[in-house]
Amino acid sequence: MTWYAIALLVIIFGLAGMLWYQVYGMVKLDAKSRGLKRPRLWGYFASSADSGLLLYLLGRRNYVSTMNEADQAEMEGRKKQALWLVVLLVAATVLLLAAMML
Amino acid sequence: MQIGAKLKAARAQAGLTQEQVAEKILVSRQSISNWENERNFPDIISVIRLGELYGVSLDTLLKGDEAMIRHLDESTNVVKSNKKLLIAVLINLLLMAALFVMMTASSVNEILLFVVLTLVLISTGIVFYQIIRKI
User: Fold this and answer.
1) Angle, alpha carbons B20-B25-B29 (nearest 5°)
2) d(Cα A77, Cα A83) in Å, to the nearest integer?
3) Which residues of A touch B129 (CB under 8 A)?
């Protein structure tokens, strides 16, 4: 493996970790605003796997969100960061693929 | 008046306890309490059953409660509220099928494989993007 492939792998792990943290934070905030018990546990559950997040989004539908403005602003900030992290993750993975295959 | 307050008033009018209502419409007493205190919304079937039990029309229960109507629209129209996500998932599945076919072929053009893999990654990223937007 070349040095830049290893560097890309490290970057990918870093980005994935940061994305995990943002999703955990968003779900924790959302669960808290909907009055769900143990919002941190929901955060861990939803951020641990794609199906966890989907299950959370399906299950929360009957609970009303009462987020205050400060939490809403935090949510929007985290969402923007998460979306950018997804874009960067995809780009880094494509570069790694190119480094390894071409 | 929001649906929670209407349900509470209708139950009081009907002279029923939360336990009695819960038993009749086959939900937990806690659910009745949550709906009346607006901690969450009842599903449409429960709203219909409550209307029948209390002798109150759906129109009376739902009219003017925009939040409840939005909730019902989102929860009953799964396709409408998840159109982009469903399209992204479908494209992702098709690309993964194409990738699978290519991987099982005897000889594969590396550049074509790279292109398909890239498309799979991009479509997976789009699926994640759509899911995160829904949080």
Assistant:
1) 50
2) 10
3) 83, 86-87
Q: Give the HSE-up count for residue A58: Cα atoms under 13 Å, Cβ half-sphere.
A: 8
**pLDDT tens series, chain B, 135 aa:** 688 999 999 999 999 999 999 889 888 888 899 889 887 788 888 899 999 999 999 888 888 777 777 777 766 776 666 788 888 889 999 999 999 998 888 788 888 889 999 999 999 999 988 888 888
How close, in Å, is residue A7 to chain B by CA atoms? 19
The complex's ipTM works out to 0.84
The nearest CA of chain B is from the CA of A72 a distance in Å of 12
Tell me how many domains chain A contains. 1
Domain membership of residue A97 as a residue range: 3-101
